[in-house]
Amino acid sequence: MVVHLVLFRPKSNASEPDRQALFDALAVAAKEIPSVRRFHIGNRVTHGASYERMMNQDFPFAAVIEFEDLAGLRAYLAHPKHEKLGALFYQLLEVGLVYDYEARPL
Q: Distances from the Cα of 83 to the Cαs of 4, 26, 45, 88, 103, in angstroms?
């Protein structure tokens, strides 16, 4: 399995309609791109754990997208629905981190 991990913070001056358009594009990508195995989006939770003090940047949102394999990730990235999502990210993101991981059960 391949995991596409996106941590992000929208620009503080992004309008509410622009933010909603971004989250709508995420929902469309999750539902309409066939190679997506699982798609989760979430808000950051803080609860006083010691590792939270080590974080020097705040990423209030995370998207975790799972694919069967690298070919599935590549198909997702090349899909027109993802291209629309990517354009919104570049327009509305203040900062983000994107990493891909090959994951296996323990």
A: 15, 11, 29, 9, 25
Three-state DSSP state, 79: coil
Q: What is the pLDDT of residue 37?
A: 97
Q: Are 9 and 66 in contact (CB under 8 A)?
A: no
Residues 6 or more apart from 95 whose CB is under 8 A from it?
A: 8, 9, 57, 59
Which band of pLDDT confidence, cut at 50, 70 and 90, is reported for residue 82?
very high
Query: Alpha-carbon Rg of the chain, whole angstroms?
Result: 14
User: What CA–CA distance (Å, rounded) separates 9 from 75?
Assistant: 25
Contact 62, 48 (CB under 8 A): no
Q: What is the pLDDT of residues 16-53, one digit of tens each?
A: 999 999 999 999 999 999 999 999 999 999 999 999 99
| Full-model pTM | 0.91
Check: CB of residue 64 under 8 Å from CB of residue 5: yes
Rounded to an integer, the average pLDDT of 66-88 is 96
